[in-house]
Amino acid sequence: MQSAKASENTMADFDVAIIGAGIAGASLAWFLARDRRVLLLERESQPGYHTTGRSAALFNDPFAHGPLRALTDASRDFYLNPPTGFADTPLNRPRAVLVFGPDRAALAASHAALRAAGSHAELLGRDAALALVPVLRPDGVAAALFEPDCGDLDISVIHAGFLRGMRATGGVLVCDAEVTALGHEAEGWRVGTTAGEFRADVVVNAAGAWADEIARLAGVPPIGLMPLRRSAFLLPVAHDARDWPVVMAQDESFYFKPEAGQLFVSPANEDASFPHDVQPEELDIAIAIDRMQNATTLDVRRIGRRWAGLRSFVADRAMVAGFDAAAPGFFWLAGQGGHGIQTAPGLARLAAALVRGEEPSGDLPVAAVSPARAGLNRVFAY
Description:
Helix content: 25-40%
Order of helices and strands: HEHEEHEEHEHEEHEEEEHEEEEEHEEEHH
Number of domains: 2
């Protein structure tokens, strides 16, 4: 297993330096390390501290659209049939989704669209929905959309599998390595960090909410990332909720799902923020509790752990992956918008092909995620 200390790797040469060891950077490193000298840099003392470790991690394929759908489809087989030795436990466990609400006509329209796209979704009446989730208040359920083909992704196992595999094939992970300087020279990129300096032919900007700041260090125009705060908390419940589906309000005002004997609850908020170690706002938690108590018979007397994460989007809300024309060897891998885990294998496969100078397979939406696309408003957003 490869690891590194600053003193051992100061000014060491690599083919690819990936900035950010969350799910995006770790998955790309896994794909590249088998035939490239890969350096994975992480500003925190542990990889995945920010967004990756705070995700609900739902594999929500039927509800995805456009490039998100293509990248989710491209990730499905990896999660259902991972490579030999990647993990000792399943990466994905079946978990249905139930979308409930008072507007039956709108739910029926969504159902028709999903079925036309090949989904196995069902449109349920009130009684059938209450049989699945008995805590829902009947007066708020005119109908429900039931989608069986979703799942819970095991974040820690997936992330650890990418990191372990990357190091097993020669990749190097350096933590406590905040990037402080980026400059392109004749021999490639010089990457200055708090753990020393490194050289690489290609720099991959997989810094999540910090990606525009990394670009500015490199003298590259930002892509207009918008970090949005989403809060969540764990709710102890007396019910045996292990087999409940993920439950989403039709108006997207909140959702909850079984999590380690409790319920994972979120108001599904998207509040404008900036790159930092974001914390949950008390108002977010209070709003989620109020919405949940209005829609269910659950009596919230106390809550467990609470947290928040940053979901980073660009103007058209599609991901960004590709070389930037403004700087040779500068590669974007950003803007996953809360879907980074769901799409990691597909997006990393696309990115790895581009980094190698190869043509990605035809099922991958290269043009739709390119930093040169027309829908990308390259203005600093916060």
